[in-house]
């Protein structure tokens, strides 16, 4: 049986023990020549829009680094179904060095929770690697420094990440900077025992104490759902991959059926409708993404995906149907009014004729 991505990346870490690999991987770059090399890298200027990381936080992986090659290969292969594998340019991969006191504390916290979940779930913490699409360098710094508290959560207070072999949705969720560069976080995630969370559900915490996280599908999950109460203890940013990718406009997944071509609400109208049911921070975030789209920072499909992520398909469908129903009723009343007017005119005409 071929080894998994997680098993290979554990094997290339300084420690091959799953419970210790995160801590060892972070600690290994804090000593000796690793620090000197890292400090030298921080003096380099930005090249081609590649992120210049904060000193003491990230270590840039060299071109011939085994981990860089492994992550790059995994990332590009995951874009193959969209025909983007050969069109995407990986610019840099940085490793979270976890060198500050607080970063080390977060790593230790992650390890403690992994061990606790393993003890609770028959020895299996079910730790995976997963992708998170960021809005840019500033959000990465906020997450690494302060956790996912400011991340755009789903409206039901949950953080969505995507399996290491399925980066596409995270790529779509990411926001390109002025140079067209996007950044994804590759995170360690404690899944523990999972339960299926169906699309459109309003679930915002585990259905019982028997579960730790959610997935969209048991047999082949395309989404990991981490509840907001656990997003800063069960998720640990490990790597940042910086890349350029062509626009998604007109690109369809191989074998994917065509979507219905029914007209979509104008976004200002949609925002107005959603503002009646969503929280102000959610509406502000949707409005920001709408501005990004108008400024050509993100494509229309990316905007739609982000709105779906925030509002949920169930609410969007209900909002669109409600708006169309009201519009239809309004048109019906207008048409009936016009018909009535014509009837009166015709009757008057007949009377005058007679």
UniProtKB/TrEMBL annotation:
Gene3D superfamilies: 3.90.228.10. One of its GO terms (cellular component) is nucleus. Residues 42-264 form the PARP catalytic domain. It is found in: Nucleus. The keyword Nucleus applies. Its main location: nucleus. PROSITE patterns: PARP_CATALYTIC (PS51059), RST (PS51879). One of its GO terms (molecular function) is NAD+ poly-ADP-ribosyltransferase activity. It comes from the Eukaryota. Keywords: Developmental protein, Nucleus, Stress response. Coiled coil: none annotated. Residues 258-329 form the RST domain. Pfam families: RST. This is Inactive poly [ADP-ribose] polymerase SRO5. It comes from Crotalaria pallida.
